[in-house]
Design brief:
2 copies of one chain form a homodimer.
Chain A (H helix, E strand, L loop, with lengths): L2 E7 L6 E7 L2 E5 L1 E3 L1 E2 L9 H6 L4 E5 H6 L3 H6 L3 H5 L4 E5 L2 H6 L4 E3 L4 E4 L6 E4 L1 H11 L3 E3 L11 H20 L7 E6 L5 H13 L4 E4 L8 H11 L9 E3 L5 H10 L3 E3 L2 H7 L2 E4 L2 E4 L19 H5 L2 H9 L3 H28 L2 H11 L9
Parallel strand pairs in A: 4-15, 5-6, 6-7, 7-11, 11-12, 12-13, 13-14, 14-15
Antiparallel strand pairs in A: 1-2, 2-3, 8-9, 9-10, 16-17
Helix pairs in contact in A: 6-7, 7-8, 10-15, 11-14, 13-14, 14-15
Amino acid sequence: MFKFEILKECTKTEARLGRIHTAHGTIETPAFMPVATQGSVKAMTPKEIETLGFEIVVVNAYHMYLRPGHRKVEELGGLHKLMAWNRSILTDSGGFQALSLSKVRKIKEDGILFHSHLDGSEHFLTPEKCMEIQDSLGTDIMMCLDECPPFPSSYGYMEKSVDLTTRWANLCKQAKIEPGKALFGIVQGGVFRELREKSALELLKIDLDGYAIGGLGIGECKEETYQIAAFTVPYLPQEKPRYLMGLGMPEDIVEAVSMGVDLFDCVLPTRNARNGTLFTSHGKMVIKNAHYGEDESPVDKACECYTCRTFSRAYLRHLYQAGEILASRLLTLHNLHYYGWLMKQIREALGRGEFSDLKAKFQTVGGLKESCED
Amino acid sequence: MFKFEILKECTKTEARLGRIHTAHGTIETPAFMPVATQGSVKAMTPKEIETLGFEIVVVNAYHMYLRPGHRKVEELGGLHKLMAWNRSILTDSGGFQALSLSKVRKIKEDGILFHSHLDGSEHFLTPEKCMEIQDSLGTDIMMCLDECPPFPSSYGYMEKSVDLTTRWANLCKQAKIEPGKALFGIVQGGVFRELREKSALELLKIDLDGYAIGGLGIGECKEETYQIAAFTVPYLPQEKPRYLMGLGMPEDIVEAVSMGVDLFDCVLPTRNARNGTLFTSHGKMVIKNAHYGEDESPVDKACECYTCRTFSRAYLRHLYQAGEILASRLLTLHNLHYYGWLMKQIREALGRGEFSDLKAKFQTVGGLKESCED
């Protein structure tokens, strides 16, 4: 059922135009996957997400396991039915959240012991359990359980961690899951090239359906992020989808696409929106700034989203200052529209063989590299 | 510009089918006006409000005066433009909020001295200022400044208060406002019939464009609410719109329509939605109740709103429990759809000459009188 095809390759960069097939349709790549942490892209309906052009969302297995519970989701007909989302779903393993959200946690050979951030109850997340959870959620793409050590971690710790992640990936691969679902591995290794290489090579032996780069964007500087990503991508098989986890400033996406990455997820467009920060064709915009209170123009004249076609900066600032839910809605809609537009630009440029021009223009305009208050 | 016409009268009750004309279109009455306290019906877009069939919203002059400021709204082209709402707007006077939201407040002959609930700054709201604020907001229907004493208040206090409200209404009527806008008076008098009669008769002399009944639903028992409303309505001119302020359980609306009331506003459908309480054709429903967590059916099988056509009670409960913004959106959409549907049923029944049947059925079914958990 799961299939990835490369439609066209950029001649000047490593970028590629592709298409993923799942039981829930196709995903044109490079693709951005909005994050539906608890089974909802915050403030958006599934209909809106589809209208914005997104073909896949990321759901957090950790959250769905704790609430409402993966077995309950299964009884209710699975995530797609529950969320009324008929396109593809990727679930992350829950490992990152088990480590980052729990105050009490212990990494053992068999899995991760953690306490629920909701009620303090104790849970043990093994690779087998991780597969069981994602499988019963009815996801299209599952992620192997991995350990993502904090930044900075020592070489010694990271080396052992990479080996553990490999052993867990083997166990995930052996788990019984419903046919047709894809299982992706996650390359770790922090900022150590030898360990990134080791992690990638070991995971390749397991023959997974796709490969992700994890453990980036967690504290290291951006130059290092790019260097490690650029170093790691070539180790990942050409014929399988590549996914850069959790990273997604617009410039990160353009850069990583040029390295040959196909999939992205990030909470930035949705979280920033709720904090009043907007992505626009002329840079970042902080809507709460006082001078917008008298500004009758739209957030982005070049943008065709409902928010920009309908409301002024002054009104959006008012809604934000007044704590209105409509602010979260309208700003999220705009930011996701921007991301949908960006990915479409990238794919169309790849289709025309002009991706390197788009990348250069993107860097020249610089709007997206800096915070410009217009 | 402002005009009210009665299209049909019920032969068995005092109910009437009517139509209000303002500079921003027509309003079929009896009508429910969703509350856009701070210039936004909470969690909804203006497009959705219009699609739900509402032709007028209520905006709070007190809130807009304090933030963003009525002069700023005026500079930005007025409330309609700011909110992207091209239908009618009624603004309340702000008197109620100046008294209820401020810790420091003093009622003087000239107006209300209060401290802003936002920053503690001191303000003095006179009838003239009240007219200036509403006029510059660009509203279609303005409300006179009134005093709404708390329940219970003594007869002596209430009598003086009614006289003050009458004097203020006179001053409001004398204020210079843009032609074409309507000015409604507010009958006060608490639970004292003599004072309600007095208040109504005095206000009638001022010849206002419509008459509201204020000061109900603030602590007195429901029987008293109905009795006072039923007692007061006949004093209000037949040929002018009648507005029952702030009251709006579905059964209240049906009851008051039968008394001859034309306009309603209430925060219940929106506020209850955000608290997880839904109005349905089979009674109230508290979505957070545990058993809904496994319930695959829609909130209301008879309802055609997006929420009911798309999502299960189980998912809505999950969203509510998880604190997702989408819960507020979907539940608000449903509740407002219910109110829109209710008003349409009432108007259609009036048109067919069958309103008393609808009222009887409404009481027989009893679903809306009691909290039924289905």
